[in-house]
Write a structure and sequence with these properties.
Layout: E1 4-5, E2 16-21, H1 25-37, E3 40-45, H2 48-57, E4 62-66, H3 74-84, E5 91-96, H4 101-110, E6 114-117, H5 122-169, E7 175-177, E8 182-188, E9 196-202, E10 207-215, H6 219-231, E11 244-246, E12 253-255, H7 258-271, E13 279-287, E14 292-298, E15 304-306, E16 312-314, E17 332-336, E18 342-346, H8 348-351, H9 362-372, H10 378-393, E19 402-408
Parallel strand pairs: 2-3, 2-4, 4-5, 5-6
Antiparallel strand pairs: 1-3, 7-8, 8-19, 9-10, 10-13, 11-12, 13-14, 14-17, 15-16, 15-18, 18-19
Helix pairs in contact: 2-3
Length: 430
């Protein structure tokens, strides 16, 4: 029966634990005396099976095992031990009278760290154990470092999860009832947070602005820049909204043309934002009573209009990204929405989504999805579009941020006057 031999001069905190496995009681006692003198608390086992049971109960820093034993020998014990050991490492020394290279190779293959020929020299045994202690000390240092890294990772992960919730909260509502027309928003980051943002704000009694932003890159930096640019469209005062300019003829504030808005953001990015990152924007100024659409496409994917009869039109000519070229010029695109039409602004995370064969979803894939999902409206549509992308990608997570804004136009009812302040928009004169 295995028993524990204690050395009262060694404190519990400093004790190292060793397991001595040998069918000879005399050999076990001899090794125990040596190991206790070297600061080890020892446990003994008379067979490989008994040793496995002891290892299941506690961890041993050092295992000293005879090779030749009845029943389960040292080689089989070592193999089984390595298969079942926990996260902490044990230094395993086999004691054997075998000295041929084949036997040594076999022992190494099953997980032994070292060999000692019998009869064992105490001096050599102490030297081999000292080598094992150095290895175990390094293992403990690595484990401690990994534990600290894990704590840091957990802290960062918690912060990123909170950042994700904050980013999602920037889209206070996914669905907006606009008095006959509706707007539905989609935002799915590829990681915890991403550089895409979509949103809307009130321009005047009958007009709204809708924007879609895609910052190059991913992660926290892209998310911060995306949120900062989105904030340009939602200032609390009229002079804080990037859309509002002062008309030099009347001296009154008015909503700038979409191409003027893109130029102002481009200037701001180059002159005031300390970043080498660029972004793309699609910004639309929409009259909800007449259906008049005025839009700028600054490097963003081509906006798409799905007509009431199912016809699909991609509009725009591309345009330059924001934040690359000083004094870049942009163009305002005009189109007419009719009752039953819908406009989709979306990021390239949709069209560039790849399947397992590295094929992109593309504009053709988006066209097919629009046709397939034509019967769905609002949030149901944008969620179904996301599921179509997931089926295409063959996974639940995307490699790039996915975002979109879907405006479904109908003959709008008269919209009530907005409050005389900005929140995600400023009421200004048409």
């Amino acid at each position: 029966m295995a028993h524990r031999i204690k050395n009262p001069s060694i404190t519990a905190e400093s004790r190292k634990c060793a397991l001595i496995v040998d069918d000879s009681r005399a050999q076990r006692m001899t090794f125990a005396r040596h190991l206790q003198g070297w600061g080890y608390q020892t446990c003994e086992a008379a067979s490989g099976l008994e040793a496995l049971e002891a290892c299941a109960r506690q961890h041993f820093d050092l295992i000293l095992s005879d090779w030749v034993m009845p029943g389960m020998d040292g080689l089989e014990f070592c193999r089984n031990f390595r298969a079942e050991q926990g996260e902490r490492y044990s230094y395993f020394i086999l004691l054997t009278s075998k000295n041929d290279k084949t036997a040594v190779a076999e022992g190494l293959n099953v997980g032994a760290d070292d060999f000692l020929p019998k009869p064992v020299s105490p001096v050599e045994l102490r030297a081999r154990i000292a080598a094992g202690e150095r290895l175990l000390a390094m293992e403990r240092e690595v484990r401690a470092a990994l534990d600290e890294l894990q704590k840091l990772y957990d802290a960062v992960d918690r912060d990123l999860m909170e950042a994700r919730r904050l980013q999602q909260s920037l889209i206070r509502k996914r669905h907006h009832d606009l008095g006959g027309s509706t707007l539905s928003l989609l935002l799915q980051s590829s990681g915890h947070v991403g550089g895409d943002m979509v949103g809307t704000f009130i321009i005047s009694t009958a007009r709204i602005g809708v924007y879609a932003i895609d910052v190059s890159g991913h992660g926290v930096a892209a998310a911060m820049l995306g949120a900062r640019v989105a904030g340009l469209f939602s200032g609390g005062e009229h002079h804080q909204n990037i859309v509002v300019i002062r008309d030099p003829r009347t001296g009154k504030p008015r909503a700038g043309d979409p191409h003027e808005v893109a130029a102002r953001i481009n200037e701001l990015m180059l002159e005031e934002f300390d970043t080498e990152t660029y972004l793309t924007i699609a910004y639309a100024d929409i009259d909800l009573q007449t259906g008049r659409l005025r839009l700028v496409q600054a490097g963003h994917p081509h906006p798409v209009i799905q007509r009431a009869d199912g016809q699909i039109d991609y509009i725009g000519e591309g345009g330059l990204p924001i934040g690359l070229i000083p004094n870049a010029s942009f163009a305002t695109i005009e189109a007419q929405l009719k009752p039953g039409d819908r406009l989709l602004l979306y990021s390239d995370g949709i069209t560039e989504c790849t399947n397992p064969n590295s094929e992109e979803f593309g504009e053709d894939g988006l066209r097919s999805a629009l046709e397939k999902l034509a019967h769905l409206k609002g949030v149901e549509f944008v969620d179904a579009l996301k599921w179509e992308l997931m089926r295409w990608a063959g996974k639940d997570e995307f490699d790039d941020d996915v975002s979109g804004a879907l405006l479904e136009f109908d003959q709008a009812q008269q919209i009530e006057e907005a409050p005389a302040r900005f929140y995600r928009g400023v009421p200004v004169s048409d």
